[in-house]
Amino acid sequence: MVDNRHATALVIAGVLSVLASVYLSVSVGSPHWYRYTSPPVRAESNATELRALQDEFLDREFDEKTASDAMFRMNGTIGLWWRCVQTPTDAHWYKEADPKMLLECVSFTPSQQLTPKYKEPGNHNSGEDTIRTYLWRCQFLLPLVSLGLVVLGGLLGFCACLCGSFTPVLFIGLLHLLAGLCSLATVCCFLAGMDLLHRVSVFPDHVDAMLGWSLYLALIASPLQMMAAALLVWAARSHGQTYYRMTAYRVA
């Protein structure tokens, strides 16, 4: 028999868990974790240079320096699995006051996600930057681990409902706590990696960098998962204490 308080806590925890999973899934699939605002181009020579940079950027072969330069200068955005730049739809776009721009994105392949980072981006002879390499790998692995833990917790909860058992709730709460920590660590790894990249890159003048809405979604998902974990742990502990008290009363 489940007390009404415990049942309410379980329902609220389930809603929080679902919301967190949706937020994190949308965030992982979006390229708007970080974005750059570049100054407008008014000279044909600069426009020709940007077209060449655009062609290299849209090539499937990933070069960190080329990709970074293109995003810096073409109002680019970057996510965990995508990198994007804004490309013009008109050949003489640089002569227009408000040219129409199209956001073109290229996905990171799994092999590109595991590619080592170098102390000088794009220079393979500069030596591997171990910190940036593992920050990059963690930032795309940790959200997958987080979602996997939530899915595992959901399966355990479904099995517990079928069996009419309250025992796995504490373990499910611990899974959600680990998932929340993984989500928070994802954001931390991403921000640290971007900061280190900017330190070793040639950052153009008059280019602004800011956080995107996708990163905030991942940041919101973390406390939601932790609140769900707290409710589940409280329900498990409270239900256990109530059960032992009832058992002791019946024995007495």
UniProtKB/TrEMBL annotation:
Gene3D superfamilies: 1.20.140.150. InterPro entries: CLDN1, PMP22/EMP/MP20/Claudin. Its main location: membrane. It holds the Pfam family Claudin_2. It comes from the Eukaryota. One of its GO terms (cellular component) is membrane. Keywords: Membrane, Transmembrane, Transmembrane helix. It is a multi-pass membrane protein. It is found in: Membrane. The keyword Cell inner membrane does not apply. The chain crosses the membrane at residues 7-26, 140-162, 169-193, 213-236. This is Claudin domain-containing protein 1. It comes from Triplophysa rosa.
